[in-house]
Amino acid sequence: MSDRVSLKFGSLILDVPFFQAALSGYSDYNMRALARRHGCPFALTDVMLAKSMANPKVLAKPCFQPGDDEHPVGAQIMGRTPATMAKAARDLVAAGYDLIDLNFACPAPKVLRRRRGGALLAEPSALMDIVKAVQDVVDCPILMKLRIGFDSQPESLDCFWEIVTRSIEAGVDALVIHGRTVTQRYRGQADWDILATVKERFPDATIVGSGDIFDPAATVDLLKRTGLDGFIVARGAIGNPWIFRDLRAVWENHPIPAPPDLAEQRAIILEHFHRVLEGHHEKKAIGYFRKFMVNYARRHPKRKKLLIDFMLAADRAAVEAVIDTWYVDAYPGAD
Length: 335
Fold this sequence. Notes:
Strand content: 5-15%
CATH superfamily of the largest domain: Aldolase class I
Structural class: alpha/beta
Low-confidence stretches: 1-5
CATH architecture of the largest domain: Alpha-Beta Barrel
Number of strands: 11
CATH class of the largest domain: Alpha Beta
Radius of gyration: 20 Å
Distance between the termini: 40 Å
Largest sheet: 9 strands, parallel
CATH topology of the largest domain: TIM Barrel
Helix content: 40-55%
Number of helices: 14
């Protein structure tokens, strides 16, 4: 175990140095609840558009409210107008969120076209105007999600270091940095050496790493090697709440538990599906849950055949029948 036994954001202290990232289209209350049950101490919401969250009628919808049983929980917001970002942050804190996370990292083309998310990494002054506006209206920890530049040009690296320096000087509670540029999206391997350099230059700042967190033991070794304060789990948590159980075991010097057997996987998959059904009409729920099932199925010995059956399931009974058929020891094709 590392000498650093917790991760601190202002008044918020975690007992392990990792948490669940904001995942666009995934990290709703249901995913956050399952992650928490499996050892995740803190999670961020799906990214929220500040323009929408500044509208009281939108924010009042149940899907945007924090669960009573999930504190601490953070709200991630994205936008480029300081006043709108500030209003959204203030209203989200009033709604019960414990932390605000500012998204300056999203690489989605539709986001970049509107000069939001990762596009702001090329505009240090505009980005810092947003930070100041949010700081002026909330009294809670503030995180910033960055990438290591907009692209690989020297000018992008200069902007990155300007943003890092100014945000730390401004008192942002932590920088969460993904080790790729915006234009890389998720191609290639995340560069954690640059993240280590940030920590070396600013040893008193809280620097959290992001990118390619899939293997618990390798990730904890990487954290120790780079000297960062923590890391977030993003894609590695989709359809895999067990990653938090395994990370906690490694961090606490316990043996990694045996992988979940088919019965345990079945129970979690069914629970997740039923949770989704509670918040959506049946047809929409099935479509929404498919992207989770693609990831849950990665553990199954007959993944491709399972997914073919699952993708053909058009109603609740059919989905449940597929799960009941494949998540037993005598699944089709089992020896």
